[in-house]
Amino acid sequence: MFTGIVQGVATIEEVTAEPGLSTYIVRFPEDKLDGVSIGASVAINGTCLTVTRHEGSALCFDAMQETLKLTTLGHLKAGDPVNFERAARIGDEIGGHLLSGHIHTTAKIVEILRPENNVTLWFEVPDEWARYLFPKGYIAINGASLTIGEARGNRFSVHLIPETLRATTFASVQEGQQVNIEIDSQTQTIVDTLARLGYDGPAPTL
């Protein structure tokens, strides 16, 4: 499990692509790998990956075909920055919201607004995921736990403060870029349960 509190930015050092499998060597800040071991879970841009090798300040990960299909990992190349978070431990502070590291879909950045001292990003998800978007609801974008600002159809916005921009890759994103999305599990459970009970139709006309 993860908390959605990004612990820093790492750099893709090498990508080796084979049929149905990609291997990534990721370089981390020197002080972020204390106690890491083979088999540990690390979220890279929100995707839970397993450490297969530890080389100094670099970790190696394998991503299978299904992961490459559902996430943006297949588009990563050497030199790209990525958000990372090591798996939460019992007793850790949950500053964001609980995440599994299993990506549901991807979204496209459709607009970037830069008012003074903050940034607003607008995203577009596939239509079938719009039902889980609610103003003030939780969502994870590239592994970062964020609060939805507005939701309009299959589009939603988030507002980023300077600290979030400093600690993540969001400061350098561009319009048209794809990001990983993990829907809040509680929101998904509530929406799906109501749908099974028949409460997902349009509101009645009064």
Automatic annotation (TrEMBL):
Signal peptide: none annotated. It holds the Pfam family Lum_binding. PROSITE patterns: LUMAZINE_BIND. Gene3D superfamilies: 2.40.30.20. The keyword Acetylation does not apply. This is Riboflavin synthase. Residues 1-97, 98-194 form the Lumazine-binding domain. Its EC number is 2.5.1.9. It is an enzyme of class 2 (transferase). SUPFAM superfamilies: Riboflavin synthase domain-like. Keywords: Repeat. It comes from Marinobacter metalliresistant. Lumazine-binding repeats lie at residues 1-97, 98-194.
